[in-house]
Design a protein that fits this description.
This protein is mainly alpha-helical. The chain has a two-stranded antiparallel ribbon.
Length: about 110
């Protein structure tokens, strides 16, 4: 229902009438969410990619130093590290490891 306001109309109840309409409240919530969403997304992405020293310390206290923000390694660097580990084992013990060392191990002397 649309109300036409004439210059002689009583303007006292206009605010009450407008605030009783659901589209006004929907628009108000939509404007607030739209205004805050970019700030929230930027903060989440920044903390995920480049955490501050304070955030690092908080996470370290919560989960322990070994699990907090460990640098992600590529599959290639993991494979190179695994090869280095296997060659060190072979040099020190003479034991040769076959297969993926993170899964089941086959050891041959």
């Amino acid at each position: 229902m649309t109300t036409i306001i004439t210059p002689t109309a009583d303007l006292y109840w206009i605010a009450e009438h407008i605030l009783s309409q659901p589209p006004i409240w929907f628009g108000l919530v939509l404007v607030i969410v739209t205004a805050l969403l970019p700030d929230i997304l930027i903060r989440v992405i920044r903390n995920a990619l480049w955490p501050s020293n304070t955030l690092r310390k908080q996470v370290e206290e919560k989960v322990g130093p070994a699990q907090s923000f460990a640098p992600r390694r590529s599959v290639k660097s993991q494979a190179a590290e695994s090869d280095e580990r296997q060659s060190l084992i072979r040099q020190r013990t003479g034991v040769r490891i076959y297969g993926n060392p993170t899964q089941g191990r086959e050891v041959h002397l």
